[in-house]
């Protein structure tokens, strides 16, 4: 077990003061622990956003287990099937045949043909040189009325290009085919959950007389296919940017990446870019900024006695959020993140000047197995994100993943309100954070 | 169709079996994989994950390291973590990509042991077999390593429990009930492998008079203990009202005679009329089928979807390899007792009785888990 030094667990290598931290990767890689915070979506949850689709996973038993039970817990086993791979399949040349025959068998047995099949191959198929194109070609010939989408569960390749999460968000829009564009329509691409209607992004699009399409609003496959007609692709999550780029190339539409930010100047710049793309003048955001500042002030009055800890599952910009809160008087003491995205560099540099003692703490480091449930905390903690809630052991936490659908000045005000609420009301952390895919149905 | 399922679940894999079996023993388990095995295991296959710490890790294998055969990273990462965390032992095992790359886990284990001084063994998982295969190999490795020294038999009758994991018994009291039943039957429990027990307990396993194999993943370790100490084993789980007494007699007889016994498989049927079927792991399901025969007066067969030694199944039992085979077998049964995730392939006219099995449905139906140990069965058959 951890060796105790001066009565404290030795967390060397698993946490570092921001003043001493390297950017973008503050910790050496090594064995990894998996904290029991299950709210972030995985590729199954994301794939289920495509209406009237069916998922077929072709993987080894160990890999199948996780995706199948993801579907089971969200009570969607009627949209999930599988083909397992055994040792012989890797060496006897039958990989492609098994997948074609297995998928065909599954489709014949389904009570109703899906409009689309998301067919997932895994790392081992790609390592073995499986010919995915040949598989898709044969299946498309056999089932001409079904759209087959090549999808990937290949975490071994996560550092060799796009991550499985980025790939999934890109492939989710693969069936959108080139067609004439419809004026004054835009897509919001790559989000798991609807973006708040009150956000400046949604309001600006609407007030410019544009229609905003989002897969999270699509109830039918035809509604989903209609996204191909939109004239503008908007993304704001870093993991969605590749999807926007792919649509720009394939459909010939402009892609506008307006990264989720907690920096008021960057928010304003993003909204100005959006206004320009919509062909309108940028509104004056003074009132929106004032509302956000007022909400932060209220939240600080309520939550001021708490140490604030933030993790990377809550938002792709935990350092930026930490900076915003520190600049507005919150006692931010810790950010849980194993690595930071390049977009965080300016916030990182400012935060290390403003709060040099703030700790960056790994979430996957082997020592973190023994750092959960508040063993290292000495006072009340308010957490933003499920991993921060788990490690700090607090019952006061903001339960969001991937930004929580909040955006812009309105998003800052909403987040401040959630901080206020978390300071006042406790949650059953152990129960809440173990539900998989925040916002999805759960049988638990 | 072989290896294909439209709607049912799949059993936990061998890597989860390894982790589950070794969870409470103070060792470090490292699965050589990118990420999924650990996430799946800790979410769906390990109910102890939140409340009980254990050194179960993933190596975070990357494509580059796999292609270049960079085993040094795995070795140095494990040694570094072992230096920080001081485990009692280390187990390393693999997922599909290391299988394809031909990773030599025995050599890696030897290197880790040489550098860290911690007893280390390599296990030969691939993520392509069920949890029983991994759990079996893991338990056998622990017994092989830590039950080497001769120990005197206990003065009083005693037994080890072999093959207990939450994947088969959940965490709602079934294993405690087996312990209590054994003690009430006059056997001191030397060790329980591997729930609510310690590595030191296992080190004393050779002092037991008999071994109770409660799932097929305990059989290899039982055979090893027999070879090493001459300890006989008896396969069965004391479910229902009448079977526990038969099982207790079998333990006493084995302890006396030194002969192994398989009361869970001592079943036969006559005629061809449809009979009820229990679906699941061979020892537990066979014991439940026997309990149904004794308590309800109905012959019953096991439909076994998992790897099982032939000796653990009765002649009337049937192996079901896939979803189609399960559906066909269900249609020929007068009733089916199985995990709820089999229900979609059970014909509407065949009565279906829900018996959650964590190794199949994970945590989905944990709240419905039943403790059938040494008590009346909850169904009217």
Q: Which class of secondary structure composition applies to the elements of chain B? A: alpha/beta
Helical amount of chain B: 25-40%
Q: For the record, give the distance between the C-alpha atoms at the N and C termini of chain A, rounded to a whole number.
A: 33 Å
Per DSSP, the total helix count of chain A is 16
Name the strands of the widest sheet of chain B in spatial order: 12-11-10-13-14
CATH class type of the largest domain in chain A? Alpha Beta
Q: Which runs of chain A of at least 5 residues are low in confidence (pLDDT < 50)?
A: 1-7
CATH superfamily of the largest domain in chain B: Nitrogenase molybdenum iron protein domain
Largest sheet of chain B: 5 strands, parallel
Radius of gyration of chain B: 21 Å
Number of beta-strand segments of chain B: 14
Largest sheet of chain A: 6 strands, mixed
- Predict the CATH topology of the largest domain in chain B: Rossmann fold
The helical percent of chain A reads: 25-40%
Question: What would your notes on this structure say?
Answer:
The complex is a heterodimer of chains A (444) and B (381). Chain A is of the alpha/beta class and 444 residues long. Chain A is built from 16 helices and 16 strands. In chain A, the strands form 4 sheets. In chain A, strands 3-14-13-12-15-16 form a 6-stranded mixed beta sheet, sandwiched between helices. In chain A, strands 5-4-6-7 form a 4-stranded parallel beta sheet, with helices on both faces. In chain A, β12 (307-311), α12 (318-327) and β13 form a beta-alpha-beta unit. In chain A, α3 (95-109) packs parallel to α5, α11 runs parallel beside α15 and α12 packs parallel to α13 (345-354). The longest helix of chain A is centred in the middle third of the chain and has 18 residues, at 286-303. Chain A starts with a strand and ends in a 10-residue tail after the last helix. By secondary structure, chain B is an alpha/beta fold. Chain B folds into 3 domains: 14-129, 3-Layer(aba) Sandwich (Rossmann fold); 158-263, Nitrogenase molybdenum iron protein domain (Rossmann fold, 3-Layer(aba) Sandwich), CATH 3.40.50.1980; 265-368, 3-Layer(aba) Sandwich (Rossmann fold), CATH 3.40.50. In chain B, 39% of the residues lie in helices and 14% in strands. In chain B, the strands form 3 sheets. Chain B has a 5-stranded parallel beta sheet with strand order 12-11-10-13-14. The model of chain B has no long low-confidence stretch (mean pLDDT 95). The interface between A and B is large, with 65 and 66 residues. β5 (80-84) of chain A pairs antiparallel with β1 (4-5) of chain B.
């Amino acid at each position: 077990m951890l060796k105790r030094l001066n009565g404290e667990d030795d967390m060397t290598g698993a946490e570092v003061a921001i003043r001493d931290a390297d950017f973008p990767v503050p910790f050496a890689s090594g064995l990894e622990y998996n904290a029991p915070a299950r709210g972030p979506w995985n590729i199954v949850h994301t794939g289920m956003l495509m209406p009237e689709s069916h998922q077929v996973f072709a993987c080894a038993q160990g890999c199948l287990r996780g995706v199948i039970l993801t579907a089971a817990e969200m009570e969607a086993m009627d949209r999930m099937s599988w083909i397992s791979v055994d040792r012989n399949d890797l060496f006897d040349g039958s990989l492609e045949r098994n997948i074609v025959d297995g998928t065909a068998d599954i489709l014949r047995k389904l009570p109703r043909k899906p409009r689309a099949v998301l067919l997932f191959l895994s790392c081992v198929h790609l390592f073995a040189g499986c010919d995915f194109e040949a598989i898709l070609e044969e299946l498309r010939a056999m089932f001409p009325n079904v759209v087959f989408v090549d999808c990937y569960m290949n975490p071994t390749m996560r550092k060799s290009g796009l991550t499985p999460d980025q790939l999934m968000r890109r492939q989710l829009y693969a069936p959108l085919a080139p067609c004439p564009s419809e004026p004054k329509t835009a897509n919001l691409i790559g989000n798991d959950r609807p973006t708040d209607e009150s956000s400046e992004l949604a309001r600006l699009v609407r007030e410019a007389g544009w229609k905003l399409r989002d897969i999270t609003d699509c109830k039918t496959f035809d509604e989903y296919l209609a996204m191909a007609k939109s004239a503008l692709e908007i993304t704001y999550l870093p993991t969605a940017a590749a999807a926007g780029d792919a649509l720009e190339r394939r459909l010939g539409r402009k892609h506008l990446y307006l990264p989720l930010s907690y920096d008021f100047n960057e928010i304003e710049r993003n909204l100005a870019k959006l206004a320009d793309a919509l062909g309108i003048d940028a509104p004056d955001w003074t009132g929106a900024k004032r509302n956000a500042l007022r909400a932060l002030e209220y939240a600080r009055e309520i939550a001021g006695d708490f140490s604030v800890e933030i993790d990377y599952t809550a938002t792709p910009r935990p350092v930026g959020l930490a900076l915003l809160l520190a600049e507005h008087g919150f006692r931010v003491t810790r950010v849980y993140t194993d690595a930071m995205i390049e977009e965080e560099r300016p916030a990182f540099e400012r935060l290390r000047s403003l709060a040099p003692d703030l700790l960056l703490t790994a979430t996957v480091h082997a020592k973190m197995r023994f750092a959960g449930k508040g063993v290292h905390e000495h006072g009340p903690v308010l957490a933003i994100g499920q991993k921060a809630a788990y490690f700090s052991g607090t019952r006061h936490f903001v339960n969001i993943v991937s930004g929580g659908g909040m955006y812009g000045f309105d998003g800052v005000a909403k987040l401040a309100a959630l901080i206020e609420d978390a300071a006042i009301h406790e949650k059953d952390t152990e129960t809440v954070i173990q539900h998989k895919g925040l916002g999805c149905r759960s049988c638990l | 169709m072989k290896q294909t399922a439209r709607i049912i679940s799949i059993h936990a894999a061998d890597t989860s079996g390894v982790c589950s079996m070794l969870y409470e023993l103070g060792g470090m388990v490292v699965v050589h994989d990118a990420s999924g095995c650990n996430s799946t295991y800790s979410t769906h296959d390990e109910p102890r994950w939140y409340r009980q710490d254990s050194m179960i890790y993933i190596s975070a294998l990357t494509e580059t390291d796999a292609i270049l055969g960079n085993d040094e990273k795995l070795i140095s990462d494990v040694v570094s973590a072992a230096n920080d965390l001081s485990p009692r032992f280390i187990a390393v095992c693999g997922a599909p990509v290391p299988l394809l790359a031909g990773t030599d886990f025995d050599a890696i284990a030897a290197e880790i042991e040489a550098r860290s001084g911690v007893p280390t063994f390599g296990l030969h998982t691939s993520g392509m077999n069920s949890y029983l295969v991994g759990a079996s190999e893991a338990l056998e490795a622990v017994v092989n390593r830590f039950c080497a020294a001769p120990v005197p038999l206990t003065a009083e009758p005693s037994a080890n429990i072999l093959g207990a994991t939450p994947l088969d018994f959940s965490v709602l009291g079934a294993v405690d009930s087996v312990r209590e039943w054994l003690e009430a039957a006059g056997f001191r429990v030397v060790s329980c492998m591997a729930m609510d027990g310690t590595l030191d307990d296992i080190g004393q396993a050779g002092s037991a008079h008999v071994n109770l194999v409660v799932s097929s993943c305990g059989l290899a370790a039982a055979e090893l203990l027999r070879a090493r100490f001459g300890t006989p084993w008896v396969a069965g789980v004391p479910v229902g009202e009448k079977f526990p007494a038969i099982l207790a007699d079998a333990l006493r007889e084995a302890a006396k005679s030194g002969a192994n016994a398989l009361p869970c498989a001592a079943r036969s049927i006559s005629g061809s009329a449809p009979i009820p079927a229990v679906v699941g792991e061979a020892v537990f399901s066979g014991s439940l089928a026997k309990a149904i025969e004794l308590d309800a007066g109905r012959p019953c067969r096991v439909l076994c979807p998992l790897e099982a030694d032939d000796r653990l199944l009765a002649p009337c039992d049937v192996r079901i390899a896939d979803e189609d085979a399960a559906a066909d077998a269900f249609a020929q049964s007068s009733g089916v007792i199985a995990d709820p995730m089999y229900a979609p392939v059970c014909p509407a006219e065949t009565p279906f009785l829900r018996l959650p099995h964590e190794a199949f449905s994970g945590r989905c139906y944990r709240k419905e888990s039943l403790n059938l140990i040494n008590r009346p069965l909850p169904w009217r058959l």
